[in-house]
UniProtKB/TrEMBL annotation:
The keyword Transcription regulation applies. It holds the Pfam family RWP-RK. Residues 172-181, 263-273 have a biased composition (Acidic residues). Residues 184-269 form the RWP-RK domain. InterPro entries: RKD-like, RWP-RK_dom. Residues 1-18 form the signal peptide. Residues 156-195, 263-283 are annotated as: Disordered. This is RWP-RK domain-containing protein. Putative transcription factor. GO terms for molecular function: DNA binding; DNA-binding transcription factor activity. Residues 156-171, 274-283 have a biased composition (Basic and acidic residues). It comes from Oryza barthii. Keywords: Coiled coil, DNA-binding, Nucleus, Signal, Transcription, Transcription regulation.
Length: 339
């Protein structure tokens, strides 16, 4: 068994805070339990992140989290939060509190719902954990509910999409499968979805910027219909929209990041035998982390390759690793439920 598959992380807690001073600023605190072989818990890690979440922009703040922090710099222990709680000298108010040991929240607040804030999917480090808590259903239909900055712009796009959907009803509605269905038969359109010059000007480089989004979200961003985007993809020899492959690789990479960037445990006992055992454990842990780092670099390289060659399938080794991670995560959750 590959050492990189020797550990897997499971979301154990998630708390999201809205700024009381800066509209749109959001911070999150993520707790991850890391398990080894046989579902044995090895260590726990906590991460604090910052985002800007508005209907017009959803992005993660790349810079380190600025003070006042919600988590202390050298955090040890297990924090507990509740909705409505104000922390960090009144700068942040808790709008979501989840703990795996308690019943999950029934619904997320509007800013954390992809159905009301579709651009939330553009920040996978937060969205993927929210999905683990709420198990969003029919997520591929989210762009239909999308609220844009300009209601007039949205209504005009919807009118064109509706007309085009009636014309291209024979084409497959699948978000990813671009192979099913034949080219549309010539027919008279009552309304054009987009200007022909605009459609002709869209290049592979333009399309590649949105491979990380669902195809419907990408089509709206490009201001063309899904059917036209599928035709453009076939024109560039892209049989399937690569969003799901990229999303799967992102999830695996993030899982590895949580495992790699862990805190070191310290043993203050003076017993020579205990110190030797601790040294051996630390060495084994370091070897496992080095193997995980190599695996992460391979996945990042594969993701970059797929973004350049979207027709390429995931490697067999990657599929096996993903399956092993799923199995270990299932066993870890089962063991956690039995504790």
């Amino acid at each position: 068994m590959d050492a990189a598959a020797a550990a897997v992380s499971t979301l154990s807690a998630l708390a999201v805070f809205a700024s009381t001073l800066d509209h749109g600023a959001v911070r999150s605190v993520h707790g991850y339990k890391v398990y080894g072989r046989g579902g044995r818990r090895r260590w726990e890690r906590w991460v604090e992140r910052e985002f800007v979440l508005t209907p017009a922009s959803c992005r993660e703040v790349p810079a380190p989290v600025a003070p006042p922090r919600i988590l202390p710099a050298e955090w040890r222990g297990r924090p507990a939060y509740r909705e409505g709680q104000v922390v960090a000298a009144g700068a942040w108010r808790c709008i979501l509190a989840f703990d795996s040991a308690a019943a999950p929240p029934r619904t997320p607040p509007p800013v954390l719902s992809p159905f009301l804030n579709p651009r939330l999917m553009c920040v996978p480090s937060l969205y993927n954990d929210l999905e683990k808590v709420f198990r969003f259903q029919n997520v591929e239909k989210i762009p239909k509910l999308m609220q844009c900055d300009s209601e007039e712009k949205l209504s005009s796009w919807d009118a064109r999409d509706k007309s085009s959907d009636e014309v291209h009803a024979s084409e497959s509605d699948s978000d990813d499968d671009l192979q099913s269905g034949e080219e549309e038969k010539p027919t008279v359109q009552k309304q054009r979805r987009a200007n022909k010059k605009h459609i002709a000007s869209i290049t592979l480089v333009d399309i590649a910027q949105y491979f990380h989004l669902p195809i419907r979200e990408a089509s709206r961003t490009l201001k063309i219909g899904v059917s036209i985007l599928k035709r453009k993809c076939r024109q560039y020899n892209i049989p399937r929209w690569p969003h799901r492959k990229i999303k799967s690789l992102d999830s695996l990479i993030q899982d590895l990041e949580y495992v790699i960037d862990d805190g070191d445990d310290h043993d203050d006992t003076g017993d020579d035998v205990q110190q030797e055992k601790h040294k051996q454990t630390a060495e084994e842990k370091q070897e496992a982390i080095m193997a995980l780092t190599r695996r992460k670099q391979m996945l990042e390289t594969e993701k970059e390759t797929i973004q350049q060659i979207p027709a390429m399938d995931l490697k067999v080794e990657t599929k096996q690793f993903r399956e092993d991670v799923f199995k270990r995560r299932y066993r870890a959750k089962k063991d956690l439920a039995n504790d």
